[in-house]
Amino acid sequence: MTLPQSDILSTRYLNRVFDKTVATYKYYWLLGLLEEVVMKGNRCINIWDMIVSMVANAWYPVVYFRLSFGKSESLYETILKLQQQQQIPINLSKKELTARLYELIQHKEIRDQLNFLQLNVPFWFLRPWIDTTIPREIEVRSQSWENGCLYRLVRIGGVMHVEVNAQWTGYLQENYTILTSFAYWNLTNFLQARNPNVPNISGKLIKPEERNSLSKQREFWNTAINNGLEVHCLYTGKILTPRHYDLDHFIPWSFVSHDQIWNLMPADSSINSSKSNHLPNLDYYLPHLAEAQQAALRINLQLNCQPKLLEDYFSLGFSPQEIVAMDHDHLLNCFKKTFEPMSQIAENMGFEIWKYTQS
User: Fold this and answer.
1) How far apart are CA 114 and CA 111, in angstroms?
2) CB 203 within 8 A of CB 285
């Protein structure tokens, strides 16, 4: 992906900022810089504003989606530790999370945990413009805007600040969307190599503010219930009625990132908070899921309901008609072939196994 040219700037250095990248820091640094300059209108940015932005942007890929950043990634480990120590809910909005992070960095022990983010990345990001590996030399040479560098590093009251080159502000504002896409496109490629079996990496870099409606999937299950199928919650065993259930992503949405009908099952609303984004115990729950799915699918096929939605079942390797015709053993084997690899990959990423226990 090549960035737009400029009549007054040389963008060849900016095109090289992610060359030989071995960690995620530079991607989140550029995203933070764009937010500060374009969204907030800041040209001289306190380093702690940059650090908060980096942590907030990296939060959901780590805590919510459990993407691996690689073996030697301190940002990943620090975010996990911070979330666990401070008991920060994983479903906070970015605005709420940012406010919480600003509260936390008022404490010295939190600043000490995050301080590593100002030791290297502010300097190494300028390497395409200032060709040296010595941080102090990069800082000094940036003062004269060497090679028209994007920003210079200045100390104000003993605190590092990033002062953006005035010649660059117009370019950043005009090309904000493209530059953001440039950062995310490179970050996607970086993370895909470290998460080769994980679906939809690009869709897991930002936590969506709103999820898709499940009205069609709910209609599928309501049709089955209204036509004689007795549907029990997999976890509590409670008989469910059309108006009194939640649709549960059997393998968490935060892993699969889709709403395909074969991974959705009516569940007692009372288990949502406890199951959250945990993995169900397949040995215990998968046979019941497969049987309920087959029974509901049979009714919807007979009534010719939502044929487009039923195409989801082709993802299991068989047509809806073939799944309905299976005996118990072949049915369970069909579901195992899809669910066991997904569950194992998710478990390797840090998703925890869960089994309902009545309180």
Assistant:
1) 5
2) no
Alpha helices in 67-164 (DSSP H): 74-86, 94-104, 108-114, 121-124, 135-142
Q: Are 66 and 352 in contact (CB under 8 A)?
A: no
Say how far apart CA 142 and CA 125 lie, in whole Å: 12
| Burial of 295 per CB tally in 10 Å (0-12, 13-18, 19+) | middle
For residue 239, what are the β-bridge partners? 232
CA gap 200, 254 in Å, rounded:
10
Rg (CA), the chain: 25
Global confidence as pTM: 0.77
Eight-class DSSP state of 253: H
Question: Rounded to 10 degrees, what is the CA torsion of 44, 47, 48, 54?
Answer: 100
Residue 56: its H or E element: helix 47-59
Side chain identity at residue 358, one-letter code:
Q
Question: Would you say 190 and 28 are in contact if contact means Cβ atoms under 8 Å apart?
Answer: no
Phi, psi of 236 (to 5 degrees): -100, -15
pLDDT tens across 250-293, in order? 998 888 888 999 999 999 988 866 787 889 999 999 999 999 99
